[in-house]
Specification:
Length: 255
């Protein structure tokens, strides 16, 4: 399987800093081409959110430099991958918390990490950044760790009501601002001629799944230039609709 990669970020209409951070790296291995994409949304309203998000991105990049090549050589076992990723989350939760205590500020970050090979994808998620699969339809691959998602699961809110709920952005946990963090894990078989997309919540609140599909379906995402143009068009639509948050989107097209 081969991959085309594109990513873009925008500070948005009202923020002084972009607290989103992301990284996308491609490797060659015994599994063929492998992509690691990580997106972190530093907590809106919390000071120094960009420090938290960048800290976690650097930790995943360090892991991809040192541990991932060995993991790919030895055979990619899901249990070992989750052990490594749990360690990254635990260590950096403490690191960010300690930084906050030393500086007297509150900070934290969400994270979605996607590792994709020709035969399997693996996703880690904390918070409300998301991963999507876009092929013949659009599907959310992650589950938001938010109060409103919990309310939807309990039948107390509809998805439409959740988008208007004032608790929409209240997280159940995030890295650096929670005592302990329990990531969710998801995995599956990647599809040929599909788009795997990560986004911060600022990307998706003002646009519909139908609009995302219209711009980011595989037929429209034929090369990195087209991909970036289409993602930027959706970001402009977000801003026209007065999205106030930072906006980041990463897309990986399989072929």
């Amino acid at each position: 399987m081969k991959f085309i990669i594109s990513a873009t970020t925008d500070i948005g209409l009202t923020k002084n800093t972009n607290q989103d951070s992301f990284s996308v790296r491609q490797f060659r291995s015994n599994y063929g081409n492998v992509v690691l994409a990580v997106l972190c949304d530093g907590m809106g309203g919390l000071a120094k959110g960009e420090v938290a998000s960048a800290t976690l991105i650097r930790a995943f990049e360090k892991w991809s430099d040192h541990q991932l090549p060995q993991l790919l050589r030895n055979g990619l076992e899901e249990q070992v991958l989750q052990r490594d990723w749990n360690q990254i989350i635990t260590e950096n939760n403490e690191k960010i918390k300690n930084y906050g205590k030393q500086t007297g500020i509150n900070l934290g970050t969400t994270v979605t990490a996607l590792l994709i090979t020709g035969t399997r994808y693996h996703i880690l998620n904390v918070g409300d950044t998301r991963a999507y699969e876009i092929a013949d339809h659009i599907q959310v691959l992650t589950q938001d760790q938010t109060v409103v998602a919990q309310e939807i699961a309990c039948g107390r809110l509809t998805p439409e009501e959740a988008e208007r709920d004032p608790r929409r952005s209240v997280l159940l946990q995030c890295v650096g601002a929670s005592e302990t963090v329990q990531p969710d894990y998801f995995s599956g078989i990647p599809r040929q001629n599909a788009v795997y997309m990560l986004c911060s919540d600022g990307f998706r609140h003002q646009i519909s799944p139908e609009e995302i599909y219209q711009y980011l379906n595989p037929a429209c995402m034929t090369d990195s230039e087209c991909m970036k143009k289409n993602m930027e068009a959706l970001i402009e639509l977000d801003k026209q609709r007065q999205e106030r948050d930072n906006i980041t989107v990463v897309s990986i097209r399989t072929y």
